[in-house]
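Re-running Pentatricopeptide repeat-containing protein, chloroplastic to confirm reproducibility after the cluster update. Everything else is unchanged from the original entry.
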Amino acid sequence: MSSVQLLPATATPSISTAKATPFKNLQSCSTMAELKQHHANIIKLGLSSDNDAMGRVIKFCALSESGDLNYALKDSFCQNNLIHMYVNFESLEEAKRVFDSLDKKDDVSWTTLISGYSRWGSVDKAFVVFESMPVKNSAAWNAVIAAHVQNNRFREAFNLFERMRNENVAMDNFVAASMLSACTGLGALEQGEWIYDYVRSSAIEVDPKLATTIMDMYCKCGRLDKAFEVFNGLSSKGVSSWNCMIGGFAMHGKGKAAIELLKKMETETMVTPDYVTFVNVLGACAHSGLVEEGRYYFSYMTEVYGIAPGMEHYGCLVDLLGRAGMLEEAREVINEMPFRPDVGVLGAFLGACRIHGNIDMAEEIGRQVIELEPNNSGRYVLLANLYAKAGRWEDVANIRKLMNDRGVKKVAGFSMIELEGTVSEFIAGGRTHPQATEIYAKLEEMLVRIKDLGYVPNPDGILYDICEEETENPLHYHSEKLAIAFGLLKTKPGETIRITKNLRVCKDCHQASKLISTVYDREIIVRDRNRFHHFKGGVCSCNDYW
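Result of re-run:
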């Protein structure tokens, strides 16, 4: 029965009169002998992979009293669709069984299985299948590179990309999009610009998806100006292009610019804002403290466009109100939601309670969040920090014990910086870098200079925040400070330093970065887990609102 659902058997293709007769004959078959004869004619006409033709073959074989389903499943086109069906249902063993049974495996067979393993997180199995291919074409390279990118294995994706280039396989728009996403993940602006330059100098078509990927790379690598330049240069802008640019302004804390772009979208184009548009607009309001604007657009999207608020919209509204200290109103929003709040909504409220030190409101929701995501160490940490701030050390110990009992491991904090096409990664207190001696010497110089401006280490939110930087290391040796020191060593005076973190910037590093930007007259751009921070002249673009 599942086989019948693989292809639509009712669609009528646009075909010439010469081809119409064999299709009609397929539909009028009454025996398997007739079907085989007319199917042979279809194959001779080069239509063996036509959806409508094969849909009729499968339908007859599966539903007719004289039908033979095994006959249909011997066709490679049907078998490829069967692999695809099993992949969709996460039946990877069955998909592999069908794949192994194929007498002749075509490009579709290989790439479908590789992509299937990737989709469900089995990247290593996808790689094994790829390596067993006798001939690797561009589709196969794209499938395996995409597999690694989609599962955040960016460095391995770069290694595969280098192999592909060494084997003289030309980069197409699919590989370009995957590699730009890898650059985005690593914050590798130089590599991303190299790929974009290659795209522009070659015959690669910049379709809407690739254009959006280029913009996203620039936004997330700290070059909002370049992203806007690409956006303005597009001859045609679909809703995804507008959403990407509005989202870029949001993550950089430029809420008013995001709203202005929405207004331009509404008044100067025929493009209609959608669900994602308003997630990004509300996120922009949340990151910029635009409370009244956020309230307005939350209602506006329903009143004007008929878009019912979804989980993400509620999460943004709760985040907006909570960060602004309106905890009672934020809790009221949660209580009045038409559906059960997810961990994102509750987590936003819990984070707001942490910012404002409200242990009473946080405690009950904190427990709920932990049970909703029992393997997420950050959820335990938020609640533990609140207990620590309130001096409830027994509760802190209980949270730690709960983590240990459940085998929940803390997430290691790291910071990355790209220089001369190479991405260097730092962990708190790490000394494995070849230039560690020089880096630590520069760090000590940094600390002396910012202390002259009044810097005092701030352990608030750090001592118990085991999800952020390692607490065993002094505040001075957090990964972000090491990355900044390396950047100062390797870049020219006045050059912007760009850093990517996997966790939220701590209060101490935030304050230190502001002072470093003043002492060295540098702009320091940091992308953390939640947003961008542009440190320049002793201030941060987030206005200490993060």
